[in-house]
Amino acid sequence: MFILLLGVILVVVIILCLFAPLIIRLTLHVSDEITFKLSYQFLFMPIYDKTYHFSFDEMISSLVDLAGTKQTDFSFLPSGAFEKMTCKELCWQTKIGVENAAYTANLTALILSFKGLVKAALLYFFPKLSEINFSVAPYYRTTTFDSHCQCMFSVSLGNAIYIYLKRKRKKELLI
Question: 16: number of CA atoms within 13 Å, CB side?
Answer without folding.
Answer: 7
